[in-house]
TrEMBL record:
Transcription among keywords: no
Taxonomic placement: Eukaryota, Sar, Alveolata, Ciliophora, Intramacronucleata
Domain IPO4/5-like TPR repeats stretches: 103-262
Listed GO biological process terms: protein import into nucleus
PANTHER family: IMPORTIN BETA
GO cellular component: cytoplasm; nucleus
Gene3D superfamilies assigned to the protein according to its UniProt record, in alphabetical order: Leucine-rich Repeat Variant
UniProt keywords, alphabetically: Cytoplasm, Nucleus, Protein transport, Repeat, Transport
InterPro entries the record matches: ARM-like (IPR011989), ARM-type_fold (IPR016024), Importin_beta (IPR040122), Importin_rep_4 (IPR041653), Importin_rep_6 (IPR041389), TPR_IPO4/5 (IPR057672)
Name recorded for this polypeptide: Importin 5, putative
Subcellular location: Cytoplasm; Nucleus
Pfam families in the record: Importin_rep_4, Importin_rep_6, TPR_IPO5
Length: 1003
């Protein structure tokens, strides 16, 4: 077996490029481990001990961790429990032996990680220690003279502190001494591994406990500086640890922030000539991370803001002074997003950092310092890089400048540099105009109208292709914020003439951006463009036949975008004659020209968005093409979302995955029942993404696709019911794993829509199960809310953190309101089956959520429940006692100070009036009418006109419902004039039509 395993591993670690062979090797290895896990593991350990091939030993050390740890990647199955006690004991013993004999440090570190994660798995349950010898063995390693063994001990400890820190509660003093000794050790590797262990522990400690280890920070910063003097790579490792702490526990640095800043400043500014770029960047990033988490550290200290910005600009000017010809005129197929040089990465790093600082610290505090530095940089005479950095950084301020005069002064200040002899400075001006055109849209366009359009068009004639390309992009984004009346026929003709000259004669990046600008021009011009539309379409379609080489993929993508934008901008009768041609073109491109081996082929995103635009306007015409469109789309999506197991996927590009989901969501909605043949395959693609842990947006969008798929199957009720059962299971599983309340809201809303689209389909048993899960979800949300409320009152919590906790409370309350809507749909669709559930809510939940001490959102939640019970269950099922209590609550909350609570209660009183039996309504009428009348007299407060109008309409509508449905029980002579006086209803909707008809019968 050992030889067989070695051969399989060789196929996995060798230079074999065949993906099929590698996949077979993975499957073979998995099969052997499942058939005989004991022999498999023993053979792995033997190979790890005796193989001379470092690649094989590296693979085995990593693989052993993955198959024995509870904390490894989801795609690996932990086989520890299936091993015999003898094998388990052998693993524990041999791993420690291997640490002592392995000479390659990277492999030794992997073995240490394996021990650490396996140990954490076995120590996780503090009441059932399955490896009692582990900690004594680790402490023993620390006592050895060998540097390698001490380093391994720290590596093991890092994992144990990460996953099983509870086991060290009684070892605080030992840890402090251990950490202190490690930091004072003269060996660099010991210092680094010690700091990694400290970082792991700090990240799992409560804030109060972290203070006990704050005394280590001066030693850590001292070690950081010492290590960088001999090994900058190791200095980067230390800063990465500090950055990780800053991400999760920034307050740890509160009292020592100035010391850290001093070290970073010294490395970046005072010793900049000998400090490498990567070390400088991670240092600045660490400082920025702390500040974005605790902005008060510098918010009230302008000199720190000034110094921090100087630190950032030091990165932006640290670029080559000579401009290379490849920058001026890049090769065909060049992509700025993919192939940008390290110089631009430094500039982008600085720009992004400035954006983070302004967003977190605040524009009022940051912008004055920024203006001062930029002013000085723009005056630089002897080095263009300072002017370039200043102008590029201005691209980040558009969204933060509130005053028009300031925005105009920024643009006016940089426009003069369009005449500068240096092309990178001209480029920077156009880049900044492009970004501000997007961020400050439409304010910038309203300030400059066509004046800036003319200036940008002039730049299309620049002698440097890179500048021309950026001019086209700036023109495109500026046009997107203009109104149709801001451009006339003369300008359209001039722009068209210049753009087609670039499309025909420019290099690839010039052609691409010119087509991009053309799309914006068509969108803006609309009917004004019709005179040029046919000629443009002919020229655009020619691009597909003329530029078929790989280097023109981006150009073909831009052309798809331009044509499909035109499909939305011009009348259907003008575009329809080109519909078949663009459909066939996109089908050909997605089937024949997208490189399946290239994970970042730009054509993918353009094909997806192209189909999306076409389906929004031409879905009925596209139905006949679906058999040709859909297979290629599936193939394309499968290249983006790679299925590893039944429940797990791998995504290389999250942006492409979001586009793919967005496109599928539109297809599902637009094609409806015509999409029914593709529901099963689409389901297989989408459902694993509902639990994709690396992106909230992907989980959110995937969940939103499911109700549409249910609706697609509405012509086949049996299939639809099976689908919705499956989807509810998927969504519950996703909601139970979810940690983001906003995504959870989307998941619950998707569940609600799935049930609403299907109607009464659940058995009583299924409904009980669903009801129990709903209550559990509600209780879990309430626990999280209570935890956030508790943290808000902690002394250590500052104002910024309080805002975060308050936001979390609000999100939990929004989630609970969404749960109330889900419950309402259950009442609506399953009526009598929900009565036991309704009784539980009535006795256990309602009293808590309508208590006067809880928040407005909780009151809204409670009123939603009452409204839904009244509307969908009615008097017959609820009985007179509940009916009386519901009226008491509704008549109280219709006078609430909160407009949304008042509106919900007003709606409830109307439904209450409809569903109350005529013979008993007189006992309620005076209470209802007085409550509605008093509510109508409440003056508008700070709420928006729209919200106040909706509330008012609900009140008047409910009075109308009393007149319409309980006519004989009220004094019509008094009530009707009051009702008529408050007409018309300003926010009319379908629910009010019957009231309007009733009004008409009196006229």
């Amino acid at each position: 077996m050992a030889e067989q395993i070695q051969k399989i591993i060789q196929n996995l670690v060798g230079n074999i490029q065949n993906a099929e062979i590698q996949k077979q090797a993975e499957n073979s290895l998995k099969q052997i481990s499942q058939q005989d896990p004991n022999s498999f593991v023993i053979n792995l350990l033997t190979l790890l001990k005796h193989s001379e091939n470092k690649d094989i030993r590296t693979f085995i050390a990593s693989h052993l961790r993955k198959i024995t740890s509870k904390f490894s990647e989801q795609s690996f199955t932990c086989i520890w429990e299936s091993l015999t006690p003898e094998t388990q004991s052998a693993i524990k013993q041999i791993l420690f032996e291997l640490i002592k004999i392995e000479q390659t440090s990277s492999i030794r570190n992997l073995i240490s990680s394996c021990i650490g994660e396996l140990g954490s798995s076995l120590l996780e349950d503090t009441q059932n220690n399955q490896w009692p010898e582990l900690l004594p063995q680790v402490w023993q390693l620390f006592s050895q003279e060998s540097i390698h063994l001490q380093e391994s001990a720290f590596k093991i400890l890092s994992n144990l502190l990460t996953f099983a820190s509870e086991n060290f509660e009684k070892n605080q003093n030992e840890l402090k001494v251990l950490f202190q000794n490690g930091l004072n050790n003269s060996n660099t590797q010991i210092k680094v591994s010690c700091i990694e262990a400290i970082g792991a522990y700090i990240c799992v400690l409560e804030p109060k406990e972290q203070k006990n280890y704050q005394f280590l920070l001066p030693l850590i910063f001292q070690s950081l500086y010492q290590v960088t003097q001999t090994s900058q790579d190791d200095g980067i490792k230390i800063l990465e640890v500090l950055n990780d702490i800053a991400e999760t526990e920034p307050k740890y640095f509160n009292e020592n922030f100035e010391d850290l800043f001093s070290v970073v400043w010294k490395l970046n500014m005072e010793e900049k000539e000998k400090t490498e770029k990567d070390l400088k960047e991670i240092g600045t990033e660490t400082i920025t991370t702390i500040i974005t988490r605790i902005p008060k550290l510098i918010r009230q200290n302008p000199q720190y803001i000034q110094k921090l910005l100087e630190l950032v600009y030091s990165h932006m000017v640290d670029i080559e002074k000579e401009i290379e010809s490849d920058w001026l005129s890049p090769k065909e197929g060049f992509s700025e997003e993919i192939e940008e040089d390290s110089d631009f990465e430094s500039v982008r790093f600085g720009m992004n950092t400035i954006d983070k600082i302004i967003e977190s610290v605040g524009d009022k505090e940051t912008l004055p310092a920024l203006w001062a530095i930029i002013g000085k940089l723009l005056e630089t005479q002897n080095d263009w890089r300072y002017i370039y950095a200043a102008i590029m950084s201005l691209s980040q301020v558009g969204q933060y400048v509130e005053e028009d005069t300031v925005l105009k002064s920024v643009i006016d200040k940089i426009l003069v540099f369009l005449q500068h002899q240096n092309p990178m400075i001209r480029y920077s001006v156009l880049h900044t105009i492009s970004q501000i055109s997007e961020d400050a849209k439409p304010t910038l366009q309203e300030l400059y109208k066509s004046n800036l359009t003319q200036i940008l068009v002039q730049q299309l004639n620049d002698s440097v292709p890179r500048v021309v390309s950026q001019a086209s992009e700036a023109l495109a984004t500026y046009l997107e914020g203009l109104k149709s009346e801001d451009i006339d026929q003369t300008q359209i003709e001039k722009i068209l003439q210049d753009l087609f000259l670039l499309i025909n004669k420019g290099i690839s990046i010039v052609k691409e951006k010119a087509v991009f600008a053309l799309g914006s021009l068509i969108e803006l011009s609309k009917d004004k463009f019709l005179n040029y539309f046919d000629q443009c379409m002919i020229s655009l379609f020619d691009i597909f036949s003329q530029y078929t080489q790989k280097e023109y993929r981006q150009l073909r993508g831009n052309t798809i975008e331009c044509i499909t934008l035109a499909s939305q901008a011009v009348p259907k009768e003008n575009f329809s004659k080109y519909l078949e041609k663009i459909v066939q073109t996109i089908i050909y491109l997605q089937d024949q020209q997208i490189d399946s081996q290239n994970k970042i082929d730009p054509l993918k995103s353009y094909v997806l968005t192209g189909w999306q635009r076409l389906s929004l306007n031409y879905s009925s015409q596209l139905v006949s093409y679906l058999p040709n469109i859909i297979p290629g789309i599936y193939k394309l999506v499968e290249q983006i979302v790679i299925k590893k197991t039944e429940d797990e996927v791998e995504i290389y590009n999250s942006d492409d995955a979001e586009l793919a989901l967005g496109m599928l969501e539109v297809f599902i909605q637009e094609f409806g029942s015509n999409f029914s043949s593709y529901v099963e395959q689409t389901t297989k693609l989408i459902t694993p993404l509902c639990t994709y842990r690396y992106s909230e947006n992907i989980r959110d969008t995937a969940s939103k696709c499911l109700p549409g798929l249910v609706k697609c199957a509405e012509k086949e009720p049996h299939i639809q019911q099976n689908i919705v059962r499956y989807f509810i299971g998927i969504l519950w599983d996703a909601a139970n794993k979810e940690y983001d309340s906003e995504v959870m809201i989307a998941q619950i809303n998707a569940m609600k829509s799935c049930i609403e689209n299907t109607g009464d389909f659940m058995t009583s048993e299924e409904l009980v199960n669903l009801s129990q899960k709903t209550v559990k979800l509600l209780l879990d949300s309430d626990k999280r809310k209570a935890e956030s409320e508790k943290w808000k009152t902690e002394q250590e919590v500052d104002d910024d953190e309080k805002e975060i906790y308050e936001e979390e409370v609000h999100l939990e309350e929004d989630l609970q309101v969404q749960i109330a809507e889900l419950i309402g749909v259950l009442f609506k669709t399953h009526k009598q089956k929900t009565l036991p559930f309704a009784q539980d809510l009535y006795s256990e939940v309602l009293p808590k959520v309508i208590d006067t001490k809880v928040s407005d959102k909780m009151h809204k939640f409670g009123i939603f429940l009452i409204d839904d019970m009244v509307e969908f269950l009615g008097f017959e099922f609820l009985g007179e006692q509940k009916w009386d209590e519901f009226l008491k609550a509704l008549s109280h909350f219709v006078l609430d100070k909160n407009i949304q609570v008042r509106q919900a209660a007003a709606y409830g009183l109307g439904i209450f009036s409809i569903n109350t039996p005529v013979q008993i309504f007189p006992k309620y009428s005076s209470v209802i009418l007085k409550a509605l009348s008093d509510s109508a007299q409440i003056a508008q407060g700070k709420e928006k006109d729209k919200n106040f109008g909706h509330c008012r309409d609900n009140i008047i509508s409910s009075i109308g419902k009393v007149l319409r449905y309980q006519f004989d029980s009220v004094n019509v002579g008094e009530l009707l004039p009051f009702w008529v006086k408050n007409l018309p209803l300003k926010k009319i909707n379908r629910k009010l039509f019957s009231i309007i008809n009733f009004q008409a019968s009196w006229c």
